[in-house]
Design brief:
binds adenosine-5'-diphosphate
C-alpha cells in the first residue's frame, strides 16, 4: 500500500483537515501530516504549536505521523519514502490552485502522484482563515475545530 504526505499550513488544524487525514489514513499505509514551516502568509501559531495541536487532534490515528518541513513538498515526499501527495478540495476555486500546484510538482518530480480528496459537505465552508476570524470576534467555533484547538484559539484571542 502506498505511503502519503498531506502537506499544508494548518494554522490551525480544523475539522476539514481532520476529516481528510482520517480518510487518507484508510486509503494509505501511512500518512505524514506535514506542516509547512514558512508559508507565504501571516501565521497565528508558530510551527511547534501547530504541530502540538495537530498531534493531539490526530492522536487516535495510529498510522499518521505529524512532521514539519521547510523544503519543497516533493523533496519531503521523497525523503520520507512516500509515493503520494494528498490534498483536500472544497470548491472550484480550490481546483484551479491545486491543479497549478499538482502540475508544478509533476514537473519537479514526475514519479510523485497527487491525490485530491473531496471535502465533506459539512466542512465545505471551513478554512483556517474563517476559523481565526470567527474566534477573534468571540464567535462559537466548537463545530469547526477539535476541542484542543478551540481552547488554544480562545486563549489566543482573550
Ligand atoms: P495551504 O496553506 O497549503 O493551502 P491549508 O492548511 O489551508 O494549506 O490546507 C491544507 C490542505 O487542506 C489543502 O489541500 C486545502 O485545500 C485542504 N483543505 C483546507 N480546508 C479544507 C476543508 N474544509 N475540507 C477539505 N480540505 C480542506
Amino acid at each position: 500500500m502506498p505511503v502519503a504526505v498531506y502537506p499544508g499550513s494548518f494554522d490551525p488544524i480544523h475539522l476539514g483537515h481532520v476529516d481528510i487525514t482520517r480518510r487518507a489514513a484508510q486509503l494509505f499505509e501511512h500518512v505524514y501530516f506535514a506542516i509547512y514551516d514558512r508559508p507565504n502568509k501571516h501565521l497565528l501559531f508558530p510551527t511547534e504549536e501547530r504541530m502540538a495541536l495537530a498531534r493531539e487532534a490526530l492522536a487516535d490515528l495510529d498510522n499518521v505521523t505529524v512532521v514539519s518541513y521547510r523544503e519543497l513538498t516533493v523533496d519531503l515526499t521523497k525523503r520520507l519514502g512516500a509515493d503520494v501527495i494528498v490534498r483536500g478540495l472544497r470548491a472550484i476555486s480550490d481546483f484551479e490552485w491545486e491543479l497549478q500546484l499538482a502540475l508544478t510538482n509533476r514537473e519537479l518530480a514526475p514519479d510523485v502522484e497527487v491525490v485530491c480528496l473531496m471535502t465533506r459537505i459539512e466542512f465545505a465552508f471551513l478554512s483556517s482563515t474563517i476559523v481565526k476570524e470567527v474566534a477573534s470576534l468571540n464567535g462559537d467555533i466548537s463545530h469547526m475545530v477539535p476541542p484542543n484547538v478551540a481552547v488554544a484559539l480562545r486563549r489566543r484571542f482573550n
